[in-house]
Known about the structure:
By secondary structure, this protein is mainly α. It contains 2 helices and no strands.
Amino acid sequence: MGNVDLWRRKAEACLEKAHAVSDRQRARLLLVQAHNYLKHAEETEAQQLSARRATESQLAV
């Protein structure tokens, strides 16, 4: 889960920066970057869950 937490922390940092920035275009870019980090977190988490389920089903056999 370390990678998921890393992506989420990066997204949170981008959101904090976007909130503090007065330049609208820069804030928008930071929001897009935060969105991409959260997307990576979701994809990583889904892969980890899939791998865990595959391992559990192999152990059950």
